[in-house]
Amino acid sequence: MRAAVLHEIGQEKLEVLDDVEAVGFGPGKVRVRVRATGLCHSDLSAMNGVLPQPAPFVPGHEGAGEILEVGDGVRHLKAGDRVVICWLPACGVCPACKRGQTELCLAGFMNAGTPNFGRSGGDVFGFAGTGTFAEEVVVDAGCAVAIPDDVPFDIAALIGCGVTTGLGAALNTADVEAGSSVAVIGCGGVGISAVQGARLKGAAEIVAVDPVASRRESALKFGATKAVSPEELADAKQQVTGGEGFDYVFEVVGKSATARTAYENTRRGGTLVVVGAGAMDDFLQLNMFELFFDEKRILPSMYGGGDVLRSYERTIALWRAGRVDLAGLITHRVQLAEINEALDQMRTGTALRTCIEI
Predict the structure, then answer these.
(1) Which residues face 104 on adjacent strands?
(2) In the chain, which residue ranges form alpha helices assigned H by DSSP?
(3) What is the pLDDT of residues 281-299, one digit of tens each?
(4) φ, ψ of residue 21 in degrees (nearest 5)
(5) Residues 15-49 pLDDT 10s
(6) CB within 8 A of 283, min separation 6: which ones?
(7) Distance CA 201, CA 250 (A)
């Protein structure tokens, strides 16, 4: 079958091969025919080494498709079921799951160290234990979540990561208060989803911050009340909050520099929500006096900060009701053979989300 493979960390281009095999099928596993997958910035971060991932590997973790085969012991799925791939499944028995913090379950991360592809040259890993830049993938049954038949594959793919992460940051982690002021730094697919989440919660002012003009224009269509470049953020802070700072600031870039900017633009007693996934050697510096004196809450948001399955269901319900726009997030579509074009679209910021049709 065909799959896009990164041979070594640091390479900028993927090679689309036709001699890759999905391996590891057996009890507790399912084999999925991938129909659509989104390109998330985390895929780029794994390719360039910001996020740890063994190589060679097949990127992609935001996908949807249909079940081809189920292994022994799998009762909740059957061949033909439409599913969204969940890269962070909850095991249900670890301490985090028992506390109700299923987004902190480590079971999914353990999958990342087990190859689920192979070719004549040896093992090939799937990013985050999945690897959706392939025609087929074998995953634990918990990584395949059944979806209703009326949810298109491209929409379902977005729910698998970016939309769930962005919406959840506003709805779950921050629990944005109606009438509040919000700034979102970084307005790709995840940031735009955070904008939509803040709008759903009734934020009065939502300032979108991004260096790319097309993304700023898109943010206004999705519910931002103002869109500015990073250089214009100080003026927006003055205009919207009288210089005090925003009630909530979402950092959706994953860099210490933007997190520091987010902190400085959060009002005293306000909330900074860290959504972007950054590098282990990129440190955010805060002095102990400001940390104490400003009493700003710093809330990391992992995969939307809530129960993933419930978040999927909620997002589908909101989409059906027309309360969130998911189709509008897909600004570009390519075939798997054109995957490197999609990578360029992500790097330059010209795409909110590129859908790879497989």
Answers:
(1) none
(2) 41-47, 95-98, 107-111, 153-159, 162-168, 189-200, 213-221, 233-241, 256-264, 288-294, 308-320, 339-348
(3) 999 999 999 999 999 999 9
(4) -125, 135
(5) 999 999 999 999 999 999 999 999 999 999 999 99
(6) 256
(7) 14
